[in-house]
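Here's what a typical entry looks like (Cell shape-determining protein MreC):
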Amino acid sequence: MRDTRESRLLLVLLIAIAFALITVDIRGGEDSPVDGARSAAATVFGPIENGVSSAVDPVGNAIAAVRDSGDRHDRIAQLERDNAALKAELGSDDRNRSRLKQLNKILKTAGAGQYGIKGAEVIAIGAAQGFSWTVTLDVGANDGIQRDMTVLNGDGLVGRVTTVGPNTATVLLASDPDFTVGTRMESTDELGFASGQGDRPLRVEMLNGKAKIKKGDRLVTFGSQADKPFVPGVPVGVVSRVDPSGGDLTRTIYVEPYVGFSKLDVVGVVTQAPPRDPRDQVLPPKPKPTPRPTVTVTVTPSAGAPADGLPEQQQEQ
């Protein structure tokens, strides 16, 4: 429609008529003269409104979902936190059971050797002193720990204390290349000196080049003067390889240590030496040999075979 004077007058007239009808409808209430027209319009345009409403509802639901997504995300996050806390609690129980088992094993070892020990926990690996195979314990001078004390766990020799602070102590592990300890062979009493080789077996130089040693033999600490840095009788390991003597004055063997140095947790620092050398009493019981099954083969002759294994012709004679 073109914007002319007539069109403007028509628009004003239509607006005036609309206001007049609204006024009449409001004043008439339920008896409004335009009620019939409104009903007819509802009949015609109602289905269209419902269709539009159905089309718009998913959009409204999506908007509501976005609005509520923050609350839903918070609930999910809370459930995840609760789940993580539950797992941590269960894990803590498992760890406590593991530590209790380790502690009981240490106490059993200490009882067998009559060692006075101070329990400690490994809180760090590697120390500032430059040693590559060390651990830090959560006990120190305030707990009666001194330099050059033997450290063990339920399996055997862990190392020796090298540095002591008020509340912590550094332990040089038996696997460190700078570590050396005097050893004694079980039963034969052959002496040697074991040195660490990192994650490889300990290298032991036996003083007797003609000593009879075989794979599976076991070693314990020989002990030091005044029991420092090593008390006697602590299990060291099992012989895994023996080099040929070759007529040398000494003989080299390799020993698999009892202690797993990569999984240390609870240890014991020997604060009091045993009243006497426990010798081999601290070593674990020797494993019983596994019996080899004996296979018996029985040959059963077939039904058509001749008796006594003789040829058929001889049987007939």
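Residues 312-317 have pLDDT under 50 and may be disordered.

More examples are in the samples folder.
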